[in-house]
Amino acid sequence: MDKDDIAQAVLSSLGGRENVQYNTVCMTRLRVTLVDPAIVDYQGLNEINSVLGTATRGQNGIEVVFGPRVIDGVYHAFVSLTGVQAGTDALFPMSRQESSMRIQINPPKQREPEGTSVDVPLMDEDELSMLDDLFGETEPDASGYASEKVGDARILVVNGPNINMLGMSPFKGFPITDYPSLLELCKAEAQRVGFSRCDCFQSNHEGDLIDSIQDAYGVYHALIVNPGPLTMPSPALYAAIYAVDLPTVVVNLFEPTPLSFPQLEGTPAVTHVAGKGVEGYREAIAQLADQVVA
């Protein structure tokens, strides 16, 4: 199945165009706000090629989980099919207390290799592709990222609380007026300076941010983190940054207080850009490209 076929199958399982109110995208998930979630065909969704699982959020929200290589193409195809651009209602993460995750990965098919009568579980091409989307094609070196500049450099942008509210107070006046536009800026700038892939993640929950940073180990070569209001009180967040040991730029849209970066003292691998609004992302991407892009 290509991205258009996948998007069409997802839309059909969600109940068709008339059941879609809003949609947006995060690092590996298509987020959709539905008119009637009761008509969703969850079994059908989980049987679609490249769908890794689903998560329900709140009363009317659903997230369809893909690998990082698949999500962008499927999202744009989904938008083309529905004609629905990202809406403000879809950008607010829904309550975890009203959420549930349904993950279904079919077991590997049994195949009998030539020259033996022993049944050995092997994966078919679709399943291997799915694992490649999850873990990437290349093995990291001992430090978890390329120790020298590479031609296939990948960057992860992690955004903390309230960054999804761009365009609203206190973010009014920025040239970027919504979160999807910020994602487009990051991806376009990363491509311009030579990164082969740029993935973006946002959450209002500190644990999610730490998980995403830890998951970057061995997959990405550079990291941008905008912790938002977590900048001062979050030693756990900075401990995760140190643990993965990636070239990192911490971005703050506004000028931080002098005590905002106590954990960064004496850590030359981590720099920060502050007080430049969304343009700080461009500067951070350029700095990291100088370090890791061949």
3D structure, described in words:
This protein is of the alpha/beta class. It has 9 helices and 12 strands. It has helices spanning 3-13, 42-46, 71-82, 88-91, 125-135, 179-192, 206-215, 235-244, 279-292; strands at 20-25, 29-34, 53-57, 61-65, 99-103, 110-111, 120-121, 154-159, 197-202, 222-226, 248-252, 270-274. A 5-stranded antiparallel sheet has the order 1-2-4-3-5. A hairpin with an 8-residue loop joins strand 6 and strand 7. Helix 1 (3-13) packs across helix 3 (71-82), helix 6 (179-192) runs parallel beside helix 9 (279-292) and helix 7 runs parallel beside helix 8 (235-244). The longest helix has 14 residues, at 179-192.
Structure summarized in a few sentences:
With 294 residues, the chain is an alpha/beta fold. The chain has 9 helices and 12 strands.
